[in-house]
Each structure stands twice: as C-alpha cells, then as structure tokens.
Amino acid sequence: MKFSKRIADVPPSATFRYASLAKREGIINLTIGRPGFDPPSVVIEAAKRALEGGKHHYGPSKGIPELREKISERLTRENKIRGIDSEKVIVSMGAKNILYEIIMTLVDRGTKVAIPDPAWVSYESMVKLAEGEVVWLPLNSERGFVPDEEFIDALDHSEAKIVIINTPNNPTGAVYPERVLRDIIAVAEANDMWIISDECYESIVYEGKHFSIGSVYDKTITVGSFSKTYSMTGWRLGYAACPEFEVIDKMNILQQQSVSNPVTFAQYGALACFTPEAQKFSREMREELKRRRDYALKRVSEFACECMKPNGAFYIFPYFEGRDDIKMADAVLEEGVGVVPGSPFGKQGRGCIRLSYGSAKVEELAEAFDRMERVKGIA
Ligand SMILES: Cc1ncc(COP(=O)(O)O)c(C=O)c1O
C-alpha cells in the first residue's frame, strides 16, 4: 500500500510512545498528561441520567445548545472574552479535535503558523497534516520558558498568518503574565495575525492569574477543554469560541463531515460541570496538585539542573546542560520511572525531561525521585 505523503511525514505522538513504555509492571508513570482523579460525582450522575433518559442518538453537529450556552456565558463572564454568544461556540471531541479543525479550516499549503519552541507535540503535526509551514519561536529555560524579547522579535519577523499560544503551558508549566501576552497581541495586531489561544489548563494556576487573549484581541480563537479542569480526559469534550462567526461555521463543516457531533450523553453530563459542586471539585484538585508541584519542585532543585518554578498545569520541565534527553529518559526508565524526553517538544526542549505530577501522589513522587537520584548525572 502506498500511503499518503501527508501521513508519511508525521511521526507517531512521542508522548503516547513514552506513556506506553511506562505501562510496565512496577514503573512509576510520570509521563501521563492527565490529572489522576475521578471526575466530579455530579457530572457522572448527570451522564447516567442522560443515558437512562434516552440520550443515545446523534445530536446537533456543533454540540447541544444548552452546553454551548453555558460555555459562552462562562467565557463572557469569567474570561471576559468579547463578542461571543452560543452560536460562536463549537463543541467537539476534546480540544485536540478542536485544534485540528481550526488548523484545517485556516491553513493552506505553505501557510505559515508560528509555534513556541518547545510546545505540545501535536501542534506541529497538525500544521504538517494541513501542509502548512511551521515557524518556531524560541523559548529559553533560563527565562522559565516565558516569551522574551527574542521570542517577540521572532514572531514579528515570522510572516505567520497564525500564532499558537498555550498558557498555562504543556510541557513547561509556565504561566505567561498579562504584560507578556499584551506584547504578543501588539505584534499580532501589527502583523494582522490570528491567535489560537489554547487555554486547556486555565483552571490550574498556582501563582499569578490566567489572562485570556480573547478579552482584548478579537482575532483570537479561544480553545478550552473539560479534560483537565474536571479530570474528564476520556470524555473527549473540548470547545472553541470566536467572535467571528464564520470561523466557527467553517469548523462546523469539518465536524459534520468527520465526527458528526460530540458524544451526546457526555455533553449532558458536562452540563453539571457548571454547578457549585463541580467548581469545588476543581478547586480542591488544584490544591492537591499544588502540594505535588511544591514537593516535586523541592526534589528537582536537588538535581544538577536548571528549573524555574512552574506556576501552572501539572508539569515540571528541568534542563540538564549538555545531557542527551532521550538517553536520560531511557536511563530513568531503567530505574523504574517513566518520563518524556524534552526534544520531541522542540529543539529548545533538548536536554530537558518532562515530569507530570498529575497522576502521582506525593508518596509516589517521593519514590520516583529516590529512584531518579540513582541515575548518573541527574543528582
Ligand atoms: C496543550 C494541550 N492542548 C490540548 C490538549 C488536548 O486536550 P483534550 O483533547 O483532552 O481536550 C492537551 C492534552 O494533553 C494539551 O496538553
């Protein structure tokens, strides 16, 4: 079989690969990009009621109106996103599918898309699948991977039609301050660029405040997810909102021709994410994740590495000068801990490893760090 050039050019996801290597008996798995909690019980109960109440069938392609209404209300009230209503919101199978639809909607062969380096692995692959061209914007570990003048300058000279911004960040855990985001917006505005603002981790901020780009810049497509905020990764629910209706409308064409609609009963369950009980769950989960972040940071600071404090998400991304990150991840796995090497996230990730504390309790983290200390050159 001769496969399409499109698929031949795209590697399998590195995070999936390292996650499957870490599934062996006895391995402490710090590769997982998810919080290890059950979703709020109100949400589970609501989904059960939906199933018992006959919500088994196809639904509207953009998502059920009740859920789009709730999302648009929250984005307007809390994120202060301007100019949206429920018609300017689309729900799909996770933020991943949403991002894929956005890129397929806006990117032609050769369209330039600016992506921070390092970044979540799928952005580059999605742009390649759309035959677009990636322009990398370098981030540096000594700046805690927060955009600096070099980044802003690279963006200004990128000739990109679109820039993807992700804060709080995967893989670095960085939370970009408002003033940095305003600098990015100024460059985007001057160059008539669209911003895809991936805000999947918006609820997991320990220090500082989350700032939504769409609150001040209308050429923004805001992306959100139920996956991390409510620990619902398997429910596959994410969304996009944009003041320009046509963007959402065109994404909806892709949706109709691919997945048809997001899972109906899951959406009825997700309606309960807007209750006080679910909000409390999300706050408590953040508190627990903060305890883990504090512990992991303390232990990482004993390593021979450079690591700024990550203020959000649930990743730590230490940099080991002069080290080969792939060999380091393999050596760490030999000692019984699964981590993801930094280079699949981009050139600037070389020498780094990504540790996820989302699914490991403090006791497991303690054992994982004890094991990692045995790896030559890390401690
Ligand atoms: C930065 C980022 N964006 C998007 C996603 C996709 O999330 P989901 O498809 O589960 O909503 C992830 C998942 O790991 C992520 O880390």
Distance, first to last CA = 48 Å
Named CATH architecture of the largest domain: 3-Layer(aba) Sandwich
The total number of structural domains is 2
Helix/strand class: alpha/beta
- Give the number of DSSP strands: 12
Helix content: 25-40%
Shape: globular
Task: Please report the number of helical segments.
Answer: 13
CATH class of the largest domain: Alpha Beta
Give me the CATH superfamily of the largest domain: Type I PLP-dependent aspartate aminotransferase-like (Major domain)
The portion of residues forming beta strands comes to 5-15%
CATH level-3 fold name of the largest domain: Aspartate Aminotransferase, domain 2
**Overall mean confidence score, pLDDT:** 96
Order of helices and strands: HHEHHEHEHEHEHEEEHHHEHEEEH
Name the bound molecules.
Answer: pyridoxal-5'-phosphate
Q: Sketch the major β-sheet.
A: 7 strands, mixed
Strand order of the largest sheet: 2-8-7-6-5-3-4
| Estimated radius of gyration | 20 Å
**Which spans have pLDDT < 50 for at least 5 consecutive residues?**
none
Q: Describe it for me?
A:
With 379 residues, the chain is α/β, with parallel strands linked by helices. It has two domains: 5-39 and 277-372, Aspartate Aminotransferase, domain 1 (Alpha-Beta Complex), CATH 3.90.1150.10; 41-275, Type I PLP-dependent aspartate aminotransferase-like (Major domain) (Aspartate Aminotransferase, domain 2), CATH 3.40.640. Helix content is 39%, strand content 13%. The protein contains 13 helices and twelve strands. It has helices at residues 5-8, 14-21, 41-52, 65-77, 94-106, 121-129, 149-156, 178-190, 245-257, 264-270, 276-300, 325-334, 362-372; strands at 28-29, 89-93, 112-117, 133-138, 162-166, 194-198, 220-225, 237-241, 315-316, 337-338, 340-341, 353-356. It has a seven-stranded mixed beta sheet with strand order 2-8-7-6-5-3-4, with helices on both faces. Strand 5 (162-166), helix 8 and strand 6 form a beta-alpha-beta unit. Helix 3 crosses helix 10 (264-270). Bound molecules: pyridoxal-5'-phosphate (PLP).
